[in-house]
Amino acid sequence: MYVLLAALFVAQALAVTFTEETAARRAGALRSLRPRLRVPATARPALLAVSTGVVAIWALGGFYSSLGPALVRLVAPEAPQAARGMVFFALSASAALTVWTLRRTAPSTAAIGGCVTVLPATALTLGGLHGAGLPAVYGGAALAGVAFGAVSQGALRMILASLEEADRATTLAAYYVLSYLAMSLPAVAAGAATQLYGLATTSHTYAVVSALLALAALAALATLAAPRRRAAPIPQPTTSTDNNGTVIAPATVQDIAPRADQRHRRPSEQSAAPGSVPTR
User: Fold this and answer.
1) pLDDT < 50 regions, the chain
2) Residue 104 main-chain phi, psi, to 5 deg
3) How far apart are the first and last CA of the chain?
4) Which of 83, 135, 150, 243 is the most exposed place for a label (fewest CB within 10 A)?
5) Residue 247 pairs with which residues in a beta bridge?
6) What letter would DSSP give residue 275?
7) What is the spatial distance between Cα 151 and Cα 20, in angstroms, rounded to a whole number?
8) Are 210 and 223 in contact (CB under 8 A)?
């Protein structure tokens, strides 16, 4: 396996060498390697809104990558060794497919859908511990991958939408620091907790916390979207001009109703002034 990975890395290095550079070269190559984290004010509302969702999906990814094989062994001790490692593959494959599928979906819609998907994903995972068996565990992993891909797709596009090109690198660095901390720290804590409380209890706690984080993200996304809906402009009726260039005000319902009524009157009635008696 490691020989295969080494060969792939060599092939990638060669491909990068012959790839045409799209950015102009600038001085300061070593200075550019200095880590910098910065989230501009324009991107902070979006990052705050999706942050709990990002933590939820990356924490789920950390759970399946670290404790997924042990969970498969606990639920189905007779399952082959390959089935234990394939549980994380199910998450990764469904995440990649989801990212591609939702590439043209509105970012907020993708993020909200991903947060909602966390709930059945955690429920299926716990169902595997309560008699549903290995299919439930794999189903939970696949749904967790869908949630991962949807929230990642939506969150990144929401955060980057309002950024200048010069701010993207530092903002992405901040996003991925948050993501990998959310993936690693809960997984390490869960691994330690299994030694004290067992894998089943730890899995229950992990699933509940992930679901609560997803619900918090849904509330934050709804709060972020509310001002935008209120600020949406109300379409105004267009105006027109007559032959003399005089602006004609847009017709209202009150204006239209008498006009429609007049079309059904006799000519003598149309020429009469309001309130007068028609002449014979």
Assistant:
1) 242, 247-249, 251-264, 266-280
2) -110, 10
3) 104
4) 243
5) 241
6) T
7) 32
8) no
Tokens (6 digits) for 112: 């909200």
Q: Are 67 and 194 in contact (CB under 8 A)?
A: yes
The per-residue pLDDT for range 180-206, each reduced to its tens digit, is 999 999 999 999 999 999 999 999 999
Backbone angles phi and psi of 241, in degrees to 5: -125, 150
Distance CA 191, CA 188 (A): 5
Is residue 196 within 8 A of residue 73, CB to CB? The reply is: no
Q: What is the pLDDT of residue 117?
A: 97
CA distances from 65 to 132, 206, 259, 271 (A): 21, 14, 72, 84
- In this structure, are residues 103 and 87 in contact, taking their beta carbons and an 8 Å threshold? no
What global pTM score does this model have?
0.74
CA–centroid distance for 128 within its chain: 27
Spatial separation of the C-alpha atoms in residues 154 and 110, rounded to whole Å: 5
Q: Which two tokens stand for residue 7?
A: 């060969």
Spatial contact of 203 and 125, defined as CB atoms under 8 Å apart: yes
Residue 175: Cβ within 10 Å count: 22
pLDDT 10s digits, 92-111:
999 999 999 999 999 999 99
Check: CB of residue 43 under 8 Å from CB of residue 162.
yes
Helices and strands of the chain, counted as H and E runs: 10, 2
Task: Give the span between the Cα atoms of 94 and 120, in whole angstroms.
Answer: 15
Reported as type and span, the H/E element at residue 183 is helix 168-197
Secondary structure letter of residue 262 according to DSSP? H
Would you state the pLDDT for residue 244? 53
